[in-house]
Amino acid sequence: MTSTAEFHSEATEPAGLPLDGVTVVSLEQAVAAPIASRHLADLGARVIKVERIGEGDFARNYDTAVHGLASHFVWLNRGKESICVDLKAPEGLAAIRSLVAGADVFIQNFAPGAAERLGLGADELRADHPELIVVNMTGYGTSGPFKDRKAYDMLVQAETGLCSITGTPETATKTGVPASDIAAGLYALTAIQAALFRRERTGVGATVDLSMFDATVEWLGHSMYMQMYQDVQIKRMGLSHASIAPYDAYPTQDGKILIGVQNDRGWRTLMSEVFARDDLAQNPRYATNMLRVQHRAEVDALVAEETRRFLTADLDKLLAEAGVPAAQLNDMKGLIAHPQLEARDRWREIGTEAGPIRAVLPPMTFRDVEMRMGPVPALGEQTDRILGELGLTEEQVAGLRAAGIVQ
Questions:
Q1: In order of start, what are the domains of the chain with their CATH numbers?
Q2: Active site residue: 57, 104, 181, 300, which one?
Q3: What sign has the CA pseudo-torsion 249, 250, 251, 253?
Q4: Both ends of the chain: CA-CA distance in Å?
Q5: pLDDT tens digits, 363-395
């Protein structure tokens, strides 16, 4: 039997990136599929991004904020290789089919039925390669009355009801980040890793259908159950919380601070240790969270009366020392300068066609190996090399380029 010491020693030896040797081909655009494949690249997979001739992924043209490149694109596409092919040309489609035949994972987020019409449907691809993992990403799923609808992030947030619980009491809003896109992308990432793990044991691939709608619905579980079983539509609360009090931004001498007390012990600590208000800590009117929610306006007024006595930084320190959950209300400048990122060495430099840029390490931190953060590819940057790997000669590639089939 291996001793605990031996096991620990073996487990801490560098083992390489988790997905080294995995090849992913992705017909992707915008956010949902690219965020999934970018994390696969971070984890060590080779990710080949198939882009359309001329325009490429339309997210390349959202803005020119990063040295002339689009901010969404540089965020979502580092570490990938780009090949530009006209899929409507038989030669272009044949090249991509050859590429997929040698891959472990194929991701596509075309409109429902489009991949099948091109001959890139899961059933057709896996008939010859049953070990292939195919992930079809859609807005609303592959069936049902909404399957052919346009499904941008804002639209899905609205259709699922996410907007109904987001914003202020007066105004429904979408989230400040593309939550439905990101949810779908991260569930795709989870499904791909699970399918790879299963294939290691069984040799069998998978076909995975994943929609932005379903991913967002999953995130709305609490709100759905409140509606189904209490007939309660969760209210829009801004920075506050429908089920917890005190939980909001409170005024200080020089700004605001967020305080979120999630249990009765925290309430007593806040009142006694931070504000020296034992009378409020022991007041039966506010003894439980349900009572504090019932008397939310009073509770918020009492907390605000106390927070106004402090400078934000001083109060933040006191709250942290007492163990009361709190935060300062940062903007993006505050995030970029955040001491937590600096102290933990989270910043790296990555390459782009416009020069080096800063980027933050991905959130999954392996202690024995750092995630790969490769360069952001120019449009079609690896086309020639990838076609060469498929066996095409330089003359054949030049012919395809002259015919406008590859770029």
A1: 17-220+348-402 (3.40.50.10540), 247-329 (3.30.1540.10)
A2: 181
A3: negative
A4: 57
A5: 999 999 999 999 999 999 999 999 999 999 999
Taking residues 236-247, report their average pLDDT.
89
Separation CA 297–CA 57 (nearest Å): 49
Q: What is the per-residue pLDDT across 122-131, written as a single tens digit (0 to 9) for each?
A: 999 999 999 9
**Both tokens of residue 18?**
């988790």
Q: Is the pTM of this model over 0.70?
A: yes
Angle of helix 212-219 relative to helix 221-230, nearest 10 degrees, comes to 70
Q: Give residue 7's pLDDT.
A: 36
- Among 303, 329, 334, 335, smallest CA distance to 316 is for 329
d(CA 137, CA 107): 8
Residue 359's Cα: distance from chain center in Å? Answer: 15
pLDDT band at 13 (very low <50, low <70, confident <90, very high): low
Q: What local confidence, expressed as pLDDT, does residue 105 receive?
A: 98
Do 130 and 205 meet the contact criterion of CB atoms below 8 Å apart? yes
Q: Rounded CA gap, 289 and 22, in Å?
A: 50
Q: What is the DSSP letter of 172?
A: B
Q: Is 181 a catalytic residue?
A: yes
Residue reference for tokens 């904020």: 65
Q: CB of 342 within 8 A of CB of 286? A: no
pLDDT at 4: 38
State the residue for tokens 């390490």.
361
Is residue 328 within 8 Å of residue 334, measured between CB atoms? yes
Label the pairing between strands 206-211 and 357-360: unpaired
